[in-house]
Each structure stands twice: as C-alpha cells, then as structure tokens.
C-alpha cells in the first residue's frame, strides 16, 4: 500500500513521463519522416513534400483539437512531427532548399532569414492565441488553440499547388532544361526557452503566457534585424555574436537561480531580471543560431547531395530536440541551476566549431560553394583529396 507521499511522487513521475512523451513525440516523428522526405524531395521534387507536410500538419491539428484523451493528443503530435519532417525537407531547409535555389545569390540570406522571421511571427501569434484562449471559461480554450494550427496548414497545402518547381530540381530530376532556364530567368528579374522561463519565474498561468508574448515580440524584432545585417557582418560573425549573447545569458540565469535556491517563490525584482536575460538570450538566438542554423546548411551542400544533406540536417536537429525534450525535466530536477551552465557550455562548443571549422558563405552563390570549402584552412585538405581521387578514378 502506497503512502500519500509515495503516491503523489508516483503520479508526478507518471505525469512527467506523459508530458515529455507528448513534447518529444513530435521530434522523433520529425526525425523519422525527414529520412523518407529526402527521397521524396530528390525523386519527385520539392512540391510533393510540401503537399505531404501540409496534409500531415492539418490532420495533426484537427486531431489535437478533437482529442478525448492524452494518447490521441500524442498521436496528433506524431502527425505534426511527420508534417515537420516533410515541410522541413521541402520548406524549411528547402526554404533553404526551395528558396536558396530560387533566390538571386545576393538576396539569399535575407529571403531565408525572412522565412525565420515568419516562424517567429508564428510563435508570437501562437502565444497571443494561447494568451487569449486561456481566458475562455468553458475549458475549451486549449482545443481552439490546437485546432487553429489547421489554418496555416491549409494555406501551406493549397498555396503550394501554385508554386513552380525550382530550376535545380527540374534539372536534377531530368526534366526539360529549357523550362528550368525560363524559370531561372523569371526568378532572377532571394527552441525553446519558454518552458525554462516559465519554470524559473513561477508566475501565475496568465503572467506566464504574457511573458511568452514578450519574448515572442523580442524574437520577432531580432529576426527582422538579422535580415538587415546578415550581409554586412556575414554568417560567421553573427554566429559568434549570438553565441556570446546566449552564453552570457545562460550563465547569468544560472547564477541567479543558484543564488535563489529552492525557495518556492521569487520576487518581482529577480523575475524582471531573469526576463531581461531570457530576452537577451532570445535576441541572440533570433539573429544568429535560429535563422542561420537553417540558412548555412542550405548554402554549403552541392546540388548532387543537397537533398540528402538537408535531410541529415533535419534529422540531427530533430534527434537533439527529441533528446532535449525527453530529458529536460529530469535534468532540471537533478541539475537545478546547473542546467544553465550545462547548456551554456555547449553553446561555447558550438561557437568554437563555427569559428575554427565553418566556411563563410557571405555573397557566395550556392553553385560556387566548393570554392568556399577549398579556401577554408581545414576542409581544403579534405576537399582537395576528394577532387584528386575523383580525377584519378
């Protein structure tokens, strides 16, 4: 027979497991779907992946809004994950695959970051919707919030029917090169820190949603700024600036959390200070690692392996999102304030990788990216060896 304390602990653990499964199921489904989406994109073109992704988004949103139990909610999240996998393959990295192939080289960065701007605007709108539906007294607000995702899914699916294929895809699939030429002539005339913020600040539910709106506004403005400065500063510089911002924000939040300890509450002064550092984090992410994490991979792959490369990009992203979502609550329970130092350390590892190993893609057409690899101090030896091997073969 369980004591009340043990029973409460068991229920809490069970709820955590359902919560993490609900969150992480989207990412693991996205990972698996992205692997199949690569073949669909390569063989049939970019548009079919957009159709499939939009249809899966619509089905997942509808099921989420109508779900009668948590398992149907999880199944709806899985459908959303499938939509993410296909849409990421055809829209997100082929926004890096679709937009990068259709945009003039000098506008590639701004147009791709414009896609990221659309994402953060979507986050902001979602937070505003959640803020509004939370006030519905009947308890149906969450259903409306989940079901409303079907609206952009419908727009994505229907609008994609009128999108032309990219010239690169037409050539890659052995279609009429003359059509690709005409199309080319026409187009040449370009994660989430909210859960952590909510747990740290421990405000009321309404205030928590309001803080999500605040960070959403900050992210939207910062992403727009990224569109304006990406050409002047370059990709590597933005990666480094954003990385330093994110690192310092994580360290400061960790220090404040360590100072407060487990008091079960927080003063308005400390809460405001944490919001400032979280907004600093969001700003750094929104004008660097957020958009550039999708833009740069879309620019560095040659046409022959671009679809496979983007598939790997989506799969790796989904894998680590799944791992983070599945382990975050457990890590927060054991690490407490140390979780900020943990993630801050990994940000520095990422920044170091970019500094030493990432080539600059600023003002470089994707068709000439091989030159960028040959000019990078480390990769030029590997690219050169591959070229020699191919010539000998």
From TrEMBL:
Any one cellular-component term (Gene Ontology): membrane
Taxonomic classification: Eukaryota, Viridiplantae, Streptophyta, Embryophyta, Tracheophyta
Keywords for the protein's UniProt record, in alphabetical order: Membrane, Sugar transport, Symport, Transmembrane, Transmembrane helix, Transport
Highest rank taxon of the organism: Eukaryota
Compartment list: Membrane
A GO term, aspect molecular function: monosaccharide transmembrane transporter activity
Membrane-protein topology: Multi-pass membrane protein
Keyword Methyltransferase belongs to the record: no
Domain Major facilitator superfamily (MFS) profile residue range list: 1-362
UniProt xrefs under PROSITE patterns: MFS
Keyword Transcription: no
Ranges annotated as spanning the membrane: 57-87, 107-128, 140-162, 209-231, 238-258, 270-290, 311-333, 339-357
Pfam families for the chain: Sugar_tr
Protein's recorded name: Major facilitator superfamily (MFS) profile domain-containing protein
Family statement: Belongs to the major facilitator superfamily. Sugar transporter (TC 2.A.1.1) family.
